[in-house]
């Protein structure tokens, strides 16, 4: 399954803009998509007391990250948008640790999800550096 995600996800959508395709073709989008799939499986087995609080927050922040990622190509200030995404990724890392520490998430799931976020963070860091250099 992970080999499927090593390539860019090809999602067919009908839209009047080319931007939708260019955003969806990004490797970081594919990795975030894979992260979200695994996260939803983890949230589904959260204890009820955590599912509708911590689980919902994790879900919402991930979806907000998708929105920001999708909007980067149309943004007037790409660097600012990329930093917003970076902040969301950092917040996801903290919330995942909290989920693990409160036994809402298994150690195995926690490690897999954190590893994915680390990879997303590295991709994002490279993108931020490249964007900053292109502005010079």
UniProtKB/TrEMBL annotation:
Source organism of the structure: Candidatus Shapirobacteria bacterium CG03_land_8_20_14_0_80_39_12
InterPro entries, sorted: 23S_rRNA_IVS_sf, bAvd
Protein's name in the database: bAvd-like domain-containing protein
Pfam families: bAvd
Domain bAvd-like intervals: 30-129
């Amino acid at each position: 399954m992970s080999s499927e995600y090593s390539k860019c996800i090809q999602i067919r959508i009908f839209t009047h803009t080319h931007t939708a395709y260019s955003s969806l073709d990004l490797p970081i989008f594919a990795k975030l998509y894979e992260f979200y799939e695994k996260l939803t499986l983890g949230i589904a087995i959260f204890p009820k007391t955590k599912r509708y609080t911590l689980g919902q927050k994790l879900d919402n922040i991930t979806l907000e990250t998708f929105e920001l990622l999708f909007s980067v190509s149309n943004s007037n200030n790409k660097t600012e948008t990329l930093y917003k995404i970076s902040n969301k990724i950092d917040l996801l890392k903290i919330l995942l640790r909290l989920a693990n520490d409160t036994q809402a998430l298994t150690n195995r799931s926690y490690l897999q999800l954190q590893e994915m976020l680390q990879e997303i963070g590295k991709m994002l860091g490279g993108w931020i550096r490249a964007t900053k250099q292109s502005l010079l």
